[in-house]
Amino acid sequence: MRTVMASMKAAFFLFLHWVLQHALCRHVAVPAGPLYRVAGFPLSLPCAVSGYEGSRTQDFEWFLFRDDAAGRQMGVVSTRDKGFPYAPFQPRVTSGEVRVERDSGDKVRLIIQRLRPDDQGKYECYTPSTDSSYQGNYSATVAVKVIPDTLQISYSRSLTGQPVAEGASLTLTCSASIQSEQLTHLSITFGKRGGAEGSPSGAGEEVSTVREIISIDKLLGVVPGRFYKKRYDDGEITLEKRNGEGGQGVYMMKMTAVQPDDSGSYFCEASQWILDPNRSWQKIAQRTLDIGNLTVQQLAESLRVTSSPTGEVTLQIGSPLILTCEILGLPPEVNSGLLVQWMKRGSISSDSVGAGGVEVEVAQMTPNGIVSWGDDLSRASGGSMEKAAEGKYSLKLFSAQPADSGVYRCVVSVYAGRRNPGQSVPATLTQRSEGVTVNLKTKDVLVTAVAQLPRGPLLKRGSTVTLICNTTVTTTGPAQVQVHWLRWPIPKPVIKKAPDATMLKPPAPPEPKLIASLMYNGVSNIYINHSEISIDRLSVNSYRLRVHMATTDDQGMYACHAEAWGQDPHGGWYRTGAKAESNAVNVYLYARAADLLLIPLVVGVSSALFVGIVIIAAVTCCFMKRLARQRARK
């Protein structure tokens, strides 16, 4: 047993010695080979040293063993000796074509800017010793194979530089191929170079920007550029590959609708990739082909929206109103979607037509031809919105009413290059026409209203409250009155405070509550549920409101509002805009006689019960005390 333990300890110490020896020994590392690179393109060979002693900045020397040099060693470049390169490399080192770049003190890269066929061979990275003892490895080698350049790239049609309308489609075609005995992959990138005013330094010079639009990567995946991802997701930018003649791949990039930011110089870039033995992808060749310049002409420079008739229009009530919107300057080659809206501001209720109020939508036609009406009163009067011709849209109100007066504008939203845009797609450009002022000749209408509470017995809880609204309408032609009953709560009495008390701001008066309405066409509407209410018309100018089984919640100040309606020549009714508010009538409900008698009855019974209980308790207490004394005497 002791022998086995001794053997295990010996083996452990040997292993520990080996680990420490290798951990503290110099080690030089280069990538695993062979590495295949293309002639005429850069070569980058990393080399790193670890486990060394001395300065953190180590020196490196590179040697080449050419395949055709029978194993002879050639000095390439050194970090410590300028005279180190052999004659074939001396001019290249002097010009900077061959050089060593440091990543850190113990990591460097051998850079050969333009690889030559005779650069093929085995490269050795050597590190001169700075250690106190010679341990580890001081060099490492990697084989480099130089393969011929077979990357080809071309285009079928270049950009002419002529302005392209905003929203037009753009198609760019690029062909590329490689003929290599090694397994290499091809990637294609379409990009754009553009200029932007201003610079980070604030000098104001032009700054060139390069943006990748879309690519097919080395694994045949489509990758949009960072600034074009949303357009790619929306299907506005696509890239597809087709098989061309002679084994070439044909790559087609399509933009469905160009934007002003798309102006610039376009290029196609082809790259050749190879998978190194360490399982990392390396770009070994690349070519860029300029396709031409693109200038996008902005839609705002040509688009114009007009409406007719122009200026001011005056109509008789009941006459048809016809407005036309014309869209000019749309490029015919661009298939754009149009959202056309008719907006109106102002009405007869304003002091002057179009002087105020919120602009409301009268009607709209979506890009797919669907017409919808807004919340404006014109929908009730009847009308239509149509596409009269290409670029012309008409709004027709069959019977204009005073409420249709105001300032009309045509608002056009253009979706350049998008015939049927989604709801989340913003408009390319929105323009408004000049306003058309529409006036309607109205009749002079005067309306009055008086509210009263008929005389009768005192109003008590549970009785029926009757209110009368008497109206008068002075006008020419048929007229009707629309009556609304409103109620305010009874105001609370004001309590005067001492002079030194803190003065508080008086509370705002309560808002009235709409109780019931009788429309001009005889339809009644009740707006509260907790009371039994009816409204009817007693005569031509007299209207009645009744509250059945009234409760304390029905108390308050009542008033009626009258609104005059007129009739147009076609028999349709319209608001004249004439209104009147009546005086306020107080409604207070008294308690019933039965309620008044109930209070003393309840008080009397309660008092009698209380007195009886007290007497019984006193008698019982005295009797018990007397009985206790008699028992004590015995």
- Global shape: elongated
Helix content: 10-25%
Q: What radius of gyration results from the CA coordinates?
A: 49 Å
How many beta-strand runs?
Answer: 40
- End-to-end distance: 111 Å
Largest sheet: 7 strands, mixed
Q: What structural class do helix, strand and pairing data support? A: mainly beta
The number of distinct helices, counting runs of at least 4 residues, comes to: 5
What is the fold's blueprint, element by element?
Layout: H1 2-23, E1 27-29, E2 35-38, E3 43-50, E4 61-66, E5 73-78, H2 90-95, E6 98-104, E7 107-112, E8 121-126, E9 139-147, E10 152-155, E11 163-165, E12 170-177, E13 184-196, E14 207-216, E15 222-224, H3 229-233, E16 237-243, E17 249-255, E18 264-275, E19 281-297, E20 304-308, E21 312-316, E22 321-328, E23 337-345, E24 360-365, E25 371-373, H4 378-381, E26 383-389, E27 392-397, E28 406-415, E29 429-432, E30 436-441, E31 446-452, E32 465-474, E33 479-488, E34 513-518, E35 524-526, E36 532-537, E37 542-548, E38 556-567, E39 573-581, E40 585-587, H5 593-633
Quick rundown:
This protein has 634 residues and is mainly β. The protein is built from 5 helices and 40 strands.
Describe this structure in words.
It is elongated and about 135 Å long. The protein is mostly beta strands. The strands form 8 sheets. Strands 21, 23, 24, 25, 28, 29 and 30 form a 7-stranded mixed β-sheet that branches. It has a 6-stranded mixed β-sheet with strand order 11-19-18-13-14-15, with no helix packed on it. 26% of the residues are buried. It has 5 helices and 40 strands. Strand 18 and strand 19 form a beta hairpin.
